[in-house]
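Go through this fold for my students:
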Amino acid sequence: FQKQVCDDIGRRLTVLGDAWAQGKLSAPVRKRMSLLVQELQQQHWDAADEIHRSLMVDHVNEVSQWLVGVKRLIAETRSLPAAEPAAATDGSAQAGPGPEDP
């Protein structure tokens, strides 16, 4: 089952990547997808899911072929054991020492 899910997600993300590379995505969709990726990198699952929903509502014709893959990626990644992403640890490391230093 997992392999099928991964393969499906991979196929859909390939469609997204191809559409992006060929300039077939509108500026609003590209902007929202960039934000969605940033939220995923920071493990902000709810924020990523909210952006996904807004894309589905506002740009359904443009995103319908691949957005299901993004949705499943969010769901599957969210269910993984918690890891420390580089983006989050870098951010907390920068935020921590700042106020303490004279």
Observations:
- The radius of gyration is 16 Å.
